[in-house]
């Protein structure tokens, strides 16, 4: 029954007062009559109306896209983290202007097996959607772990002085550091980074230097929470690699990333007899300095500093408690000119107070570096002086430097390094270092993108002792 | 008498050969015909205030040396999957490195803390466009035919992809 007949029927069967209830039908009646008129007109101008409707629909699509975009701007983290919801059938339009026609056949073969489809059109679009969602979720996963490791065969002719009462070195297979590099994007501004290392000390004990031989231990080498405001200011708190020179912040606990089989003597880790405060616990701020093409960067650090190295401490890094209220300060400035990609040069100044046997010794470390490193060519140069001043005593300067050069041909990279440390025999902090100088030469072969084989010859001259020659074969890898 | 001369000559020749090998430039990439190339548009989110980047700035962004936009948003790099012409173009012309060097560079950057976020890898131009549309700090690349109004194309060295001086070109898709 048409609405007009319904209205007449109502007038006949009901009183006027009840008829008033049907007054709302009048506008509907008008619309229907108009529709009839429109239908009549459309038969005359059908083509024009279809074009108008098409244009209007396109405009609605654009406006919807714009609204979604503005919503995405307002709720950006949500938009990324809830990517799966965005790609679900109910909310699929919110993911933006989908264009299934642009999907390449190869991407459709990557369909998630369990993807549900409700229409052929969605069936085309969804496989790629799910594949993308999985990848995005992988990269957005809160915890990411990357591993590094190495195994070395090492032999040398070192015979320790009789006074040390140590056995001579034997040729041995050595497990290197097993490094689990963990990062996490906590939020847009906060990030966590850590290096959890399973390692052995000189007496075969992983993680500690004294104890039962051939056992494993764990060392948290870096442990950093970073707030990154912009390119000009980031601040981190935790345990970090002190920004002394270049090598210590460019290469961490991974031999695979390094060209050679190990770090220069100058940058040896504290628990391996190193002379520098490689690690520190505290706060560091860093960022770019507006300087145009000069590319200036700064780093400022304040931390616990290290426990005095004399006698050599099991764990010189003061992770939890310190032996003094005095804090260690470090400031570094370096430039990366944009006109010469790969070039970096700069300097750093470190200041601390050490307490060997409760005798205060001022420590100042001045370092400078000039580095040119591209894909195929590497030339690292660093020099520093460590100044120790016992209160009321004389100044002890320990100069040290190294230069390393390498060039890559395909998978092969021959390299050469010369290093030098010269500490006084009366040095209050380094009585065991004395003179160590000599060349290292070797060849790195990248067997695959993740595995490197290295063969290296070492020659180290010592003061009043026979020079040490050694040979190392190493396989370093990332996983 | 002859021995020193022969020895010196041999040493000199060896040094010259070593120097020549060290300084020998890498083989130049064979340039494809301009007529058979597309431009490669650099796209960002519509809300991004940046309209133009120099090639040096673009390189810094794609290598993770810059991690924030001027509005404070963290830069999220979107790359297409290895083996695609678009990715090859960006690696060669912008980053100036091989695929393995690029991966190594980002791994080292993450390890040093210099790089905040590793690149997102997507398989299709549609995926790249949608990601850039959804993430305010995202930057990616597309052929002009794959670009629509949902994303913003930025100029490189003051040039748009339609300009003759535009620096980034990619072989036509049909040639693959």
Please report the distance between the alpha carbons of the first and last residues of chain B.
64 Å
Question: How would you describe the oligomerization state of the chains in this entry?
Answer: heterodimer
Low-confidence stretches of chain A: 1-5, 14-44, 76-137, 204-210
Major β-sheet of chain A, in short?
A: 16 strands, antiparallel, barrel
Instruction: Supply the CATH superfamily name of chain B.
Output: Periplasmic binding protein-like II
How many helices of chain B? The count is: 5
Structural class of chain B: alpha/beta
How many separate domains of chain B?
1
> What shape does the CA trace of chain B take?
elongated
The major sheet of chain B is characterized as: 6 strands, mixed
Side-by-side strand order of the widest sheet of chain B? 3-7-2-6-4-5
CATH class of chain B: Alpha Beta
CA-atom Rg of chain B in angstroms: 21 Å
CATH architecture of chain B: 3-Layer(aba) Sandwich
CATH architecture of the largest domain in chain A: Beta Barrel
Distance from N terminus to C terminus of chain A (CA atoms, Å) equals 76 Å
Percent in strands of chain B: 15-25%
CATH topology (fold) name of chain B:
D-Maltodextrin-Binding Protein, domain 2
Q: Please name the two chains that share the biggest interface, counting residues whose Cβ lies under 8 Å from a Cβ on the partner chain.
A: A-B, 57 and 51 residues
Kindly report the spatial arrangement of strands forming the biggest sheet of chain A: 1-3-4-5-6-7-8-9-10-11-12-13-14-15-16-17
